[in-house]
Every structure is written in C-alpha cells, then in structure tokens.
Write a structure and sequence with these properties.
By secondary structure, the chain is of the alpha/beta class. The protein has a single domain, classed as TIM Barrel. The chain has helices at 24-27, 40-45, 62-76, 87-90, 100-115, 131-134, 144-159, 172-177, 190-214, 236-251, 254-259, 267-270, 278-282, 329-343, 369-387, 430-442, and strands spanning 17-21, 80-84, 119-125, 165-170, 219-225, 229-231, 288-292, 297-301, 309-311, 347-351, 392-398, 417-419, 426-428. Helix 15 (369-387) links the parallel strand 10 (347-351) and strand 11. 49% of the residues are buried. The chain binds 4-nitrophenyl beta-D-glucopyranoside.
Length: 444
C-alpha cells in the first residue's frame, strides 16, 4: 500500500478531534529544577530495575523546549493535546504548600497551546506519585483519597480558567497491576492490590467532585487501558487465567466508576476495604470515557503469581510491531464496541500507537512506513466501529515525541517525532507528515 494512502474516516463526526498525547515524567526532564520534589519514578530509575539504567532527568527536555514542541503540534495541525501535570512539580511533598514555579510552567505551556489554537487536555495522574506520599503508604493509604482531591482542587482553581478537559487518572489498572509498592508479585500481594484498587477508585470520585466544584464547565473523564485478555493456549487453565486477568485489567476501574458496582468475581476481595457509601463516592457522573488501546494481551496460567497469570506466547500467525506487540486492528474495533455497550459514554481514544527502534537513515530522514500502516489500519477499524453506531469523538496518537518508555527506558520509540537523546534535536518522521495530511484532509 502506498504510504501516502489515508484511512477511511467517512463515518466520523464532523467535529471529530485529532490529537496527540504525552505524559509529564516521560518528556519533561528537569526533575530537580524550580523546586520539583522527587517522584516514585525518580526513585525506581535509581533502583537498578530499569533495564537500560535510563532516568527521567533530561528525557526530551520538554520543560525547556515546550515552545518548540507546541510548534510541532501546530505544524501537525492537531486540535488537541493531552499532557499530564507532574504532581511533585506543583506540590513537592504531594500536599501542603504549592510550588509556584512548577505551576507557572503549566501556565506557560497552556497559554502557548491556546495561542496556537490547540485545546489542552489535562491528566492529573500519569504515574509520577510524589515520593513523599509513597513514604506514607502511597495508594495503599486511604488518606491518598484526600491527598489526590486536594491536588485536583489546586489544579482546578489555578488552571481551570483555561483548561476545561480533565482526566483524573491514566490507566489505573496498569499502575496498580504493576505497582512496585505491592511487593513481590505473588499471591501474597493480592490483598494489597484490592486495597489499592479501591483507594484509587475513591480518589477518582473525590477528584471529579473537586474539579466540578471549581470549574463550572469542566468536561471530565478517566483514561482506561482496555486490551482483550486472550488465553495463549487451548487449555482450560489458561482460559481461566485470561478471564481472571480480564476482570482486573479491563473492569476493576470502569465498572465501579461508570456503573457503581465492582465485577462480581472481585466483590468478596474488595468487601473488607469497603465503607458505607463508598460506591456512591466512586460513581460520579462523567462526560466521557478515555480509551487507551494497543493490542490484545495473551495470557497463561501461573498459579504462584499474583492473580495466577503470566504473559504467554502470541499466536505465530499474528503480525507484531518491532517491539513485539500484536497488530490486530479488529480487536480495536471490538473494544470500541464493548466500551460503547458497557458504559454508554462518548469515547475519546486518548492513546494508540506503534513502538519501534527506528533511527535516521543516511540522509537524516526517519522513515517509518510500519507506523503509517499501523495507524491507517487502526483508524479504519475505528471508522468501522463508528459506522456501527459507536459514539467515538476523538483520536490521539501516542505519542508526539519519542520518550521515556518506563521499564524500557529510551530504547522503545513511539513518537511521530524522532528525538536524538544526545542533541535533543527533534526530527519529524514520515508518519508525522502522514498524520498532518490526514488531519488536513478531514477538516473543512
Ligand atoms: C501506556 N500493555 O501504557 C501508557 O499510558 C504510556 O505512558 C506508555 O508510554 C504507552 O502506553 C506505550 O507503552 C501501557 O502491556 C503499558 O499492554 C502497558 C501496556 C499497554 C500500555
């Protein structure tokens, strides 16, 4: 297929929003500047657990280069930009007195976006918990509900005159399933997992209330990573493990938040942490469902591990991205349909993207036809979902820039823009030009 070919977008709404997403720890750098406090990720990066020994100290240096990055978005033509606020940058200890210098960075970024005609979509939590709060138990302490609500209220009061789109959490199921604060990921940490799930759900509900109280015209959601969990073999044990993981990965947060109930199979384990009125505190009215989707997950049974699962082999017939993630656009279509059926909210796809190791060629160009083919196929699948009645209103590519890819450090690249981590120079990839062409073609 010629790399210039665009997907079918004929069934998308005329006011459909095209965007790009990033997160604070993955791009900002400047971790010790202007009074920012340490986050749990600064500490993890020094624990030796990140395979490449990378840190977020410099990352993409977005803290100093945000003007250039907003310029890239303007060239791309996106209507919206999803970013996150680093909680320890604005509240170095997680609570108590605010750090004016940190807040003013987000002032400058937001003003720059608005001047460029790009709508800011602000996510309160993309995994960089203030280390000071972790030392008080982090999400395992029920006080985290108040810490988070107070932080949400500060952001709403300070930035809510210009920001109207707010997400409480990014992928709560991911950071709880993979949280180091649970300890060794065996059966012994399951009780802590249930406590964390419940506290984070309560923190979501409390933050929604704090945002509504301070921003009259706020449009609020939570961002969920939904990926079908499939057994990696025909055995009944693997099928059972996949069903169990599916509940935790895909339903543990959206069910109580959007429907006011925990999935049946979890209720007994949540019960010891439940106080009267909790479900009503969690289930606050929302304006939309934020969906992050990449691929299905293949699961095998492993009885001694947390929830009794492990990641299994992918079926040999399934094509993979260079970093080994399955390419299955039809699973995206089905996921959109499920979210629509289960929760009935307007959907914004706030992450979808392709990870590779792409480097510049001899001419300095970064040519990434695999990413273009991936995005085209996934956008076609989204259009199919829309044609069958799914209320999908926006699509944001992960990510504007190559960035700090958590446990994989800087090796895995998801950007439409290549970042040379030595010079910090940005080079738009061919997918950048392709996405710009798509946005241009769909706008009157
Ligand atoms: C998301 N999985 O995480 C995050 O929101 C981003 O910060 C991250 O950079 C991006 O996806 C790419 O990884 C995920 O195992 C983590 O399927 C794990 C999975 C999916 C998404």
């Amino acid at each position: 297929m010629p790399t210039t070919q665009l997907p079918n977008t004929s069934c998308l709404r005329p006011d459909f929003i095209w965007g790009v997403s990033t997160s604070s720890f993955q791009i900002e750098g400047a971790t010790q500047e202007d009074g920012r406090g340490p986050s749990i990720w600064d500490v993890y990066c020094r624990s030796g657990e990140i395979r490449t020994h990378d840190t977020g100290d410099v990352a993409c240096d977005h803290y100093h280069r945000y003007r250039e990055d907003v310029g890239l978005m303007k060239t791309l033509g996106v209507q919206a930009y999803r970013f996150s606020v680093a909680w320890p940058r604005v509240l170095p200890l997680g609570r108590g007195s605010a750090n004016e210098a940190g807040l003013s960075f987000y002032d400058r970024l937001i003003d720059k976006l608005l001047t460029a005609g790009i709508e800011p979509w602000l996510c309160l939590y993309h995994w960089d918990l203030p280390q000071a709060l972790e030392e008080h138990g982090g999400w395992l302490n029920r006080d985290s509900v108040f810490w988070f609500a107070n932080y949400a209220s500060l952001i709403a009061r300070r930035l809510g005159d210009r920001v109207k789109r707010f997400a409480t959490f990014n992928e709560p199921s991911m950071f709880s399933l993979f949280s180091r604060s649970l300890g060794k990921p065996d059966r012994g940490c399951e009780d802590k997992l249930h406590l964390m799930i419940h506290n984070v759900n309560l923190a979501h509900g409390a933050a929604v209330d704090a945002l509504r109280a301070n921003v009259i015209d706020a449009s609020i959601g939570c961002i969920h990573n939904r990926q079908p969990c499939r057994p990696s073999s025909a055995s009944e044990a693997d099928a059972a493990a996949a069903r169990r993981l599916d509940v935790y990965w895909n339903a543990a947060y959206p069910d109580p938040q959007c429907r006011g109930t925990y999935p049946i199979s979890m209720r007994g384990a949540i019960e010891p942490h439940m106080q009267p009125g909790d479900l009503a505190r969690i289930c606050r009215p929302l304006d939309w469902f934020g969906l992050n989707h990449y691929s299905p997950v293949y699961v095998k049974a492993r009885p001694d591990s947390m929830l009794g699962y492990d990641f299994g082999d992918k079926p040999p017939a399934v094509p993979l991205t260079p970093i080994g993630w399955p390419i299955e656009p039809d699973a995206f279509r089905k996921t959109l349909q499920e979210v629509h059926t289960n929760y009935g909210l307007p959907i914004y796809v706030l992450e979808n993207g392709y990870g590779d190791f792409g480097q510049p060629d001899q001419t300095g160009a970064v040519v990434d036809p695999g990413r273009i083919d991936f995005l085209r196929a996934y956008i076609d699948a989204m259009n199919d979902a829309a044609s069958s009645g799914v209320d999908v209103r926006g699509y944001f590519v992960w990510s504007l820039l190559d960035n700090f890819e958590w446990d994989f450090g800087y090796s895995n690249r998801f950007g439409l823009t290549y970042v040379d981590y030595a010079s910090l120079r940005r080079t738009p990839k061919s997918s950048f030009g392709w996405y710009a062409g798509l946005i241009k073609a769909t706008r009157p």
